[in-house]
Specification:
mainly beta, four-stranded parallel sheet
């Protein structure tokens, strides 16, 4: 284990559990998560290496990262704070999916002026 990460958790709880990831160390959840409370990533990185299927709200604060290798289903709100470079980030493993049955929100986008611009890829 490196000094920047906590030991992995393999018993992540069931029922009404709230998970708040804060501090500078990363945290890895290795089991299939069936808890029904909120997941809040305030700082650093939360790795979900199993599925996460019953959670209410998923909130990523500015600069926080959620990386997942299994499917994620969010029954409530998916909220990603910040804008562009300092925004919270979701990182998907190839072939994985995110399902949100509630709303998606970015509560603090900056004020914009002028007409919108289209993004292009090559």
């Amino acid at each position: 284990m490196s000094p920047t990460s906590l030991p992995p958790l393999s018993n992540n709880g069931t029922g009404e559990v709230f998970l708040v990831k804060s501090g500078s160390q990363s945290l890895t959840l290795t089991a299939n998560n069936t808890y029904t409370g909120e997941t809040i990533v305030s700082a650093s990185t939360l790795y979900l290496n199993g599925s996460h299927t019953d959670g209410e709200h998923l909130i990523l604060h500015k600069g926080a990262i959620l990386k997942f290798n299994g499917p994620i289903e969010v029954a409530g709100t998916l909220q990603i704070d910040g804008f562009m470079g300092d925004a919270g980030r979701l990182v998907f493993a190839p072939g994985r999916k995110l399902t949100v049955s509630g709303m998606m929100a970015n509560p603090s986008p900056p004020a914009r002026s002028g007409s919108p611009k289209a993004a292009t890829t090559s």
